[in-house]
Amino acid sequence: MDSAASSSSGSHGPAFNADPTVPRDDSGIKDLDYYYSSFVTNPELPTLTNDKLEKHLNTLIHYKGTPVLFTDADDETKVQHTLKRYPKVWLVAPPTPEQPRKVRHLYLEKGMDSGIDTLNRGTSGWIEVRNYVEAARKFKSEHGDNALYLRYGRPFAERKVSKFFGYNVPQWNALKRSSTPAYDLEKARFPHLRNTLDQYNYLKGYDSKNRLLGFKLDKNGNVLLEYLGQYHPRV
């Protein structure tokens, strides 16, 4: 498809959102051509409950606040629910047999024309999205899913800043030396990790190779990351 941007650099790799423990159901999986030519939003789509919405959004990476979905893992219903929550989504599709080295990209963006809802499609900015996705993929392979979704996942809200004390979080060295417990990033439940970071504005955890990672939120809610050395559990 010529209309969707593609890239020959890097490999598509396994889909981000594919859970190997869940039997695969391809019934709702659509190719990028479908989203380019035939997809329409469904205004009758039921609204997800808060718990289901949290679970849905927690397993999406976001580029500058916009969710990124993968057509070989995320079905049409997931795309619909995401567009119901966000004004825009990015779609990433695997290469075609005709062009086996080209990963394809497309955005869907809701709009309004003369009072009528519209759905705009385009590829502007796809190179930056491609680079972001590849960086996220590398980070996932090194540190696992939970670290990925803390670093590259759903944005956090702007922080509450004290009128008198401003906004302060520990320096990296102070966080490393602190008695704050370090989470096992592989075994901890992601909702708890996210809620902890959201509540305290910082946390530290170790990955499967015992690398200690520090996470902090700046006052705008952006996630800052620092490698704090090797984790040595206390005996």
Structure, described:
It is globular and about 55 Å long. The relative contact order is 0.13. With 235 residues, the protein is α+β, with helices and mostly antiparallel strands. The protein folds into two domains: 133 residues, no CATH class; 75 residues, no CATH class. The strands form two sheets. Strands 1, 2, 3, 4, 5 and 6 form a six-stranded mixed beta sheet that branches. Helix 4 packs antiparallel against helix 5. The chain is built from seven helices and ten strands. The longest helix is centred in the middle third of the chain and has 18 residues. It starts with a strand and ends in a 5-residue tail after the last strand.
Q: State the low-pLDDT regions, or none.
A: none
The number of helices is 7
Please tell me how large the radius of gyration is.
19 Å
Tally the beta strands: 10
How confident is the prediction overall: mean pLDDT? 88
> What is the chain-wise order of helices and strands?
EHHEEHEEEHHHEHEEE
Q: What's the main sheet like?
A: 6 strands, mixed
The percent of residues in helical segments reads 25-40%
What share of the residues does DSSP label as strand, in percent? 15-25%
Separation, N- and C-terminal Cα atoms = 58 Å
Class computed from helices, strands and strand pairing: alpha+beta
Shape: globular
Tally of structural domains = 2
